[in-house]
Amino acid sequence: MKRKIYSSFLTVIILLSIGFVSCLDPAFEERTNYQELIGEFLENNPDEFSMLVELLEKSESMSFLKAYGALTLLAPTNSAFEKFFAESEFSSLSDMDREELRNIVRYHVITDTIPSTEFVDGRMNTTNMFGHYITTGTFFRDNQAVLMFNKYAEVRQRDIRMANGIIHSINDVIRPELQTAAQVIEADSRFTIFTEALKRTSWFDTLHIGKGPHTVFAIPDAVYKAEGFDSFDDLWADVDPDEGNLLDINNPMNMYVAYHILDKNLRYVSDLVFDRVGLTRVRNEVVTIRPVGVNVLVNDDVFAGVHEPGFEINRDESDRTVLNGVLHVMKEDFRIKERHPFAVYWSVTEQLEIMRMPGVFRRPGDAVVLQPGDLENITWTGGNIFYEGRGGGAANPWVVHGDLFNIMLRPEVIPWVELKTPVLAAGDYKIWICFRGSSAERHPVFFVHFNDIPLPNVIRTSPYNPTNRTERPGYSERELESRGYKFYQWNPDDIAYTRSDDNDPDITRNILESNYIADSRVFGMLAGTITVPTTGSHALRFVGISGTKEFWLDMVHFIPVDEDQLWPRVNTKNGRLVTKEEIHAAYEVYQSQN
Question: Where are the coiled-coil regions (predicted)?
Fold first, then answer.
């Protein structure tokens, strides 16, 4: 599953194209059964797919779909092609050259088997052979739910299973996106002010010829006019009253535009919600992302107990794939925001390579072997790391989402592991390493480094520590915190044992009575206090000292030093943050019913 990330988005497309052509010629595995292959199914159903067969033959691609493999074909019907020709400059396939034909094929073939059960409201986990993501979503038409690709190609029949993959038939041809972000924005009459802002600040050139991928939050003219700006000059006068040099990256207007572009990162709305924060093209400046119901808001934050309302993304108009990125449309404009340190509760297993494995991420099954180089954002030397999904161990119901990494962290096997952190805002934080403990006699012991700076506390993953029930320490949770330990998660199944008072030793013992927590095998340890010098991702390294047992890693918490280190907790079922008040209310309901 090793992946290489190329610096140029266009390079990816070229390489994928070369790979597609090369797949047409090699000697494929000899056939061993007579279940229909995708290409054969299409040929055997001319009433629906004769034009698609013609496309595959003219592009010299049919043999690829008659070979064994794991493919997903988004198959336009004959009526889909008729609609395509009625709306395009072409009247038939004969009007198109071979490269244009192959681009259409590449756009409809995915080298992975993706059933409809894996469709989400967002992009697919695997790109098509053109190198672009196809988006999926459910829309309502005449009070009927309709599944669509890229918001216009309706799925007519899903999950037609063949010997070499799956077919989803569609009623439209998905058009290859061949225009850059700059070209798409400029061509849309809704964005004249934003287009001029891009051009006057030189960011237009970046979005056209600069290295991508780019994620852009575009502001329609209607939004500007609702705020009283009828032209670019009106906007400029408000953002930069001095009207300085627009090409200077420190100019307020230049920074305003750059703040609407993420830093060389391809993020669809579902990715933004998952990330919760995005680094912009303004140095050390980020946008935060928060889902509220069905809406997704930019910079909707709570600081010092005060809610700062956010700005809504127009989800119906967003997730527009372009040649070198993705375009989102805003319902409201946003400006650069003074950013304070904010807590990050990082579930470390959320790595894209694992999330893209069909039927693996957070699902029951055997552990997945990961070799050095398999993950872009986690590096190590030595042996293999194991990803354990739900059901991978007795303690898994008490780790968040039921999954974790199994790491033989010791000098003889895996001497070190380095993780690229999520985006952290500049400031001072406490780092908590959250894990399932190992055998007392052979537990892993290791150092933690942040940006190559060793932190003061040695992490010992023994379950026999001040949180252990059998020791009956008489410590409250606040006293445990002062000793560098905490309970970081909450399992709703343990509601009979949980309370919201963190200063009562008896309540601490009640928590410890809860199932697997009784052996104090799942807890967090304080690695130390860090200063994040610049907003962005940083390096977190674990360096093994001793031990012969596994290090079961669940989460890492980065919590500003002036914030509560114990609350909120993380719901093990869904990963949601749970406040003290919510746990108290849940217990009151439980008590009234029992």
Answer: none
187 CB burial (10 A radius; 0-12, 13-18, 19+) = exposed
Which of 489, 483, 449 has the alpha carbon at shortest distance from 466? 483
| CA–CA dist 26, 162 (Å, integer) | 21
Domains, the chain: 9-170 (2.30.180.10), 181-330 (2.30.180.10), 344-593 (2.60.120.260)
* Between 187 and 506, the higher pLDDT residue: 187
Asked if 558 and 344 touch (Cβ cutoff 8 Å), the reply is: yes
Long-range CB contacts (within 8 A, 24+) of 283-291: 283/534, 284/426, 284/534, 284/535, 284/536, 285/255, 285/259, 285/336, 285/339, 285/535, 286/339, 286/423, 286/425, 286/535, 287/217, 287/259, 287/262, 287/334, 288/342
Confidence of residue 297 (pLDDT cuts 50, 70, 90): very high
Q: Tell me the torsion sign for CA atoms 119, 121, 123, 128.
A: positive
Q: Where is pLDDT greater, at 112 or 496?
A: 112
Task: Please state the three-class secondary structure of 53-69 as a single string.
Answer: HHHHHHCCCHHHHCCCC
HSE, CB side, 13 Å, CA atoms: give it for residue 32: 4
Terminal-to-terminal C-alpha distance of the chain:
50
Burial of 434 (0-12, 13-18, 19+ CB in 10 A): buried
Query: Which residues, 6+ apart, have CB-to-CB distance to 409 below 8 Å?
Result: 416, 417, 444, 446, 542, 544, 547, 551
CA 534/CA 193 separation, integer angstroms: 32
* Average pLDDT value over all residues in the chain: 87
Task: Tell me the pLDDT tens digit for each residue of 208-256.
Answer: 997 789 999 999 999 999 999 999 999 999 999 998 899 999 999 999 9
Which of 499 and 176 is assigned the larger pLDDT?
Answer: 176
Residue 354 CB-half CA count within 13 A: 25
Q: Is 349 helix (H, G, I), strand (E, B) or coil?
A: coil
Q: How many helices (H) and strands (E) does the chain have?
A: 17, 33
Q: What pLDDT sits at residue 505?
A: 58
H/E run at residue 51: helix 46-58
* Number of Cβ atoms within 10 Å of the Cβ of 550: 23
Q: Write out pLDDT tens, residues 420-453.
A: 998 898 999 999 999 988 766 788 999 999 999 9
DSSP string, 463-514: S-STT-GGG-----HHHHHHTTEE--EE-GGGTTT--S-TT-HHHHHHHHTS
Note the pLDDT of residue 266. Answer: 92
By C-alpha distance, which of 107, 113, 182, 181 is closest to 149?
A: 107
Residue 511's pLDDT is: 54
**Among 2-6, 58-62, 393-397, 534-538, where is mean pLDDT lowest?**
2-6
